[in-house]
Amino acid sequence: MSYPTLEEKLAALKVSEPTDYELSCLDEVGTGRYEIGVQRTADILDEGYEVFMRSSRSQMGVAGDSIVAIFNAQGDLVNASAGTYLHAVIPPIVIKFILKRFAENPGIADGDIWYTNDALYGGIHNPDQVAMMPVFFRGELVAWTAALSHTTETGACEPGGMPVSAKSRFDEGMNLPPMKIGHNHVLRDDVIEMFAAFGLRSETSVTVDLRARCTTADRVRVRLLEMFEREGKDFVTGLFRKMLQEAEQGARTRLSSWPDGTYRCATFSDAAGTEHGLMRNCFMTMTKRDDTLQVDFAGTSPENGSSYNAHPQAVIGHMANYIYEYVFHDLPISSATFQPIDFLFPENSMLSPAPNAATSCAVMAATGAMSAIANCVGRARFGTVEWRQVSASLGNGGNASVLAGVSQWGMPFADMLAYTINTEGSGGRSTQDGINAYGFPWCAFGRAPDVENMENELPMLVPFSQHWEDSGGAGKYRGGVGTAQLWVAHHAPFVIFMSIADNSIVQTPQPLFGGYSQCTCPGLSMEDVDIPELLRAGNEGTLDLASLLEGKYGGRIVSETYARTARPVMGDQVITLGISTGGTGYGDPIDREPASVERDLTDGMISEWAAANVYAVRFDEQTGRVDEEATAAFRSEAREQRKARGKTWDDFHATWNDRKPPEEILGLYGSWPDAQVVNPLMRM
Description:
- The protein is of the alpha+beta class.
- It folds into two domains: 6-253, no CATH class; 393-636, no CATH class.
- It is built from 20 helices and 21 strands.
- A seven-stranded antiparallel beta sheet has the order 2-1-5-4-3-6-7, sandwiched between helices.
- Helix 10 (312-327) links the parallel strand 10 and strand 11 (341-344).
- The longest helix is centred in the N-terminal third of the chain and has 29 residues, at 203-231.
- The radius of gyration is 25 Å and the shape is globular.
């Protein structure tokens, strides 16, 4: 294998040096023509994105967990239309590898369709798959197009493409290096058959999504050729180079406005696949100097023997989620925006594992980086004119549940249930609360599917969908709450269920400026209760999360970790309570306006216990409204109690430095406290 090294991957993320021809073409791109040209690329990409969503079959594809992109001839990302920014900066690694490795044999020709899903070559994990097409204008390679999305079946040892029990890449099913799967604008039938074989659990979704990627890449290619024909090669070539230059300058201008300094954040998680224990899933040291950033991951826990590892470019992709949503939101999605940012990855960490490591659950490994960058950048921006844009971390749970089996329509299926992950809460902000049921931190412009669509497509019943009380992190500005859904197997003898998570004991995201983190996510299910029969009986009462947990309708609550390996669930039985995490809090909870606490209590966003014990608000027993005087007195007393508990730094450090978690939960952590490799892994 000749997969790119870490150094080659990081180099490929940088913009290629402009050729003399490109520089000469810049004269064609004057004021006015430039802005119109940029908008035309955006229009082409938006059309491609719409085609992509409408032609996809899997739940994630329909939800918009995808990206459509244009690259210059050298493989630099010029612009994109995205539901997710996760893939925004990393496709150049693959295209530049193809240009370097396969230009002569098998060659790159007009009408080629290239494809890969192997993270070793530049992807996130193997469910994320990309189709790429070279764009030839009058016989010359002038650009590339790409369409990338998540597909929920890869033929792995468990259904759903993200096997919790995988120990190495050899358990993960289909891993394709960059390869030519079509020529003369035709997708090869033998390749389609190969995908059908790997995707046997959900053949239709896998093969339709494959075609959707290819047709989307081709649609963008056709529209680009029309632009080349209409505007001329010199103009479009110059436009692409100027877009790269403007994007880099915009990024450097933004970074230069922040104060120089070193910002650190440590995040933790509680599991790696089926093994539970404490992990430092990210130790980030962000150094800002002039108009550059350096992000160092030294101190992150070692790689582990599960699928909860991520290759470095996958980690960078996760940081792009936050950076494009909150920092470079007004800049193009472009390789050039990351030109001023450098990355350092220690070998054999969970964020830079060995080539044979399992990485199908890379999103679980990289949640720490996605959370830590929000914390570090938020503190860097707070002292600038951008302070109103500072936000605490999104929920970043990504608790993904997979359902598989044979549907009520007699069709084999294996798909990810997109509702919960697309309804996580966002973090509290510098002037307002986070958004309740905001969406999917990995896919800012995705959408939760309609319940009716879920019930029509899959053999399941969804009796309720609601906000999840107390799930948002407390703060002066509260994190948005997540959601809860009840899932019941229906119209099928049985289904297979599994889920991926790592936040049932410890939450990864860190809050900002005295806020609290969100609550953890237990894996809840019910036994000995027939929900369809309850609905048929039509008894009085409200079927919701609280009533089920209180036992109003009988049955027994089973609580375990949210991550669960594949298991059967019989028809008309509860599959699980699908829950999504809330966002982190911003600022001290006892600085929150009492009226906001009262409104949250009325709306069911927080409990009476949280109002009294976390937000320190007192209510008039007669009216049920806030007692302003009693609240002010209680909060004043709470502040004095805090001061009384306070210690000097020396006293605190003397006791804190001697503390250590129990040895039995440190098997995944590495050495204490620096998280270095203790026992090197040996994979077969």
